[in-house]
Amino acid sequence: MTLPEHIAIIMDGNGRWASKRFLTRSAGHKAGGDNLRKLAERMNAEGFKYLTVYAFSTENWNRPAEEVRGLMSLMSDYIDRYIKDSKKNNMRICVIGDIGKLDQVLRDKIEHLTELTKNHQGMRITFAINYGSRDELVRAARKIAAAAGSGRLKPAEIDEKRFSSYLDTYDMPDPDIVIRTSGESRLSNFLLWQLSYSEFFISPKLWPDFGFDDLMEAVRSFNNRDRRFGRVDGSKA
Ligand code: IPE
Ligand code: IPE
Ligand code: MG
Asked: What is the 3-state secondary structure (H, E, C) of 90-152?
């Protein structure tokens, strides 16, 4: 069985997990965060290369202020924990999204953690925080327009490869598979460009319950897919 090089996950269902247990939504997010930490460590140990997870979308600001505050403080605690653990595990941690809109303290922590782990050779885990695909594409368009306006880039030089280099994911391969938990079948503004040819795997499990065995079920399913990329069969010719 081959491991997909890059797995993307829309970690959904924390709220439903909590309400089934008569807990607060924040308790659900905490359980979701703990689950991610465990799963990422196991994936790193098993030799996975890239994991990208949707942690907070540009639309999630529209949730009640208390939940947003809770999520921000949870991410901050989570990053502290990763900073502490960064000596004992070799994972490289990155963030995509517009972190300019986050609180300065959180931004500083993110920058510190990114810097601290940039030469790590283990699995690269990327958190999408204040991430929206449309926002990312608009930010890329702005950078491209600025480069063209100043004469550094000619319109004819813009091809798919060049365009990708302006996205937040400029130095990563596209995800091979995207997993969404809690049975929902939508992208919710996640990696629209990058997921063009990714395989979908929808799990009925709520995110805090999604474990390594569930991940391997997705990997097995991926191994049985025929990725045709527009051709008649899976052949490269
Ligand atoms: C996903 O869980 C976590 C975030 C969006 C931050 P939800 O909070 O969306 O959980 P449900 O969908 O309400 O169950
Ligand atoms: C997508 O989940 C965002 C994250 C998992 C961070 P949502 O729960 O916000 O998506 P919708 O609102 O159901 O589409
Ligand atoms: Mg949800």
From this structure: CCEEEEECCHHHCCHHHHHHHHHHHHHCCCCCCCEEEEEEEECHHHHHHHHHHHHHHHHHCCC
